[in-house]
Design goal:
The protein is α+β, with helices and mostly antiparallel strands and 296 residues long. Strands 1, 2, 3, 4, 5, 6, 7, 9, 17 and 18 form a ten-stranded mixed sheet that branches. A six-stranded mixed sheet has the order 12-13-14-15-8-16. A two-stranded antiparallel ribbon has the order 10-11. InterPro entries: Acyl_CoA_acyltransferase, GNAT_dom, YpeA/RimI_acetyltransf.
């Protein structure tokens, strides 16, 4: 519960407040109602494996004893190889069907933005299919882009890759691109592996996305029965030959990446149906990029 000195906000008889450990089970019940495609383990994995996560970063609307709306503010470090910036992600925005149309999500978002500013975050990111809603709060559309690559032959296959190689290749690649990306270490990779296996975005049946290697290039691949999804891709060499490498995997492939990288590769691409948005809270130089593998 809140401390006695912390002010409470009420709207239409509902309390607006930050979450507690005791609330979390009810939060997950609401999220499973609104997003039944994702398992309970996905949400609980934030508690268990995200070093920055605390239930107080879940904003709630509570009616009686029931959590009727929620929003997560997830904190993340971003790096361009030279500096670290603290950013945040808005995720798991959900309202019970019986309580929609009352502006609860808007109110929770306003609370989260105010807290992010108070805590000194540099920016907030989110992934959405309704950008017009978030534009009202100052978010800007960064876009999400995908290239479709058809197979030509089947001479290559995906192989395993050690965490140390993932990290060194990732850091070198994005430093060369001049992009601010999520800071990854071995602990972060372990958490990523756990929470993504519960997410419908990164699995198909018993097949779960993972970091793999092909032709000297490392990527985050989901190998479906008839196609391949690539949610991140980076390498120290062989980039000029990357389209040919991917064509040699023998299946139609969708590659999600930053606009600069797709243009560098010379492959045709288009905008995806969902998009990434950013709200800048502090002035800084550089361009922020959130790989799909790191989506909240």
């Amino acid at each position: 519960m809140r401390g006695s000195g912390e002010p409470k906000t009420w709207i239409q008889g509902m309390e607006i407040r930050r979450g507690t450990f005791q609330d979390f089970e009810k939060v997950v019940e609401l999220l499973r109602l609104v997003f039944p495609q994702d398992e309970r383990g996905y949400y609980f994995s934030f508690l268990r494996f995200d070093p920055f996560f605390h239930p107080r970063d879940v904003w709630l609307a509570v009616s009686g004893e029931e959590v009727v709306s929620c929003l997560f503010l997830l904190r993340r470090l971003f790096s361009d190889g030279e500096r670290l910036l603290l950013g945040g992600g808005i995720a798991n925005v959900a309202t019970h069907p019986d309580f929609r149309g009352r502006g609860l999500a808007s109110l929770l978002l306003q609370e989260a933005i105010a807290q992010a500013k108070k805590d000194g975050l540099s920016f907030l990111l989110l992934v959405t299919e309704i950008p017009a809603f978030y534009e009202r709060f100052g978010f800007q559309d960064l876009g999400k882009f995908v290239a479709r690559i058809e197979p030509q032959g089947s001479g290559l296959s995906l192989s395993g890759v050690r965490g140390e190689e993932i990290l060194s290749t990732y850091e070198a690649f994005y430093r060369s691109m001049g992009l601010l990306v999520p800071f990854r270490n071995l602990g972060y990779l372990r958490g990523l592996r756990v929470w993504n296996r519960y997410s419908s975005r990164f699995r198909e049946g018993k097949t779960v996305a993972s970091f793999r290697k092909v032709g000297g290039v490392v990527g985050y691949f989901l190998e479906r029965e008839a196609s391949i999804e690539v949610f991140d891709l980076f390498g120290k060499e062989n980039l000029p030959n990357l389209p040919q490498i991917l064509q040699s995997l023998g299946k139609p492939l969708r590659l999600f990446h930053h606009l600069v990288v797709l243009r560098h590769l010379g492959v045709p691409f288009s905008r995806d149906r969902e998009t990434v948005m950013v709200l800048y809270l502090r002035a800084f130089s550089g361009e922020v990029y959130l790989p799909v593998a790191d989506y909240f």
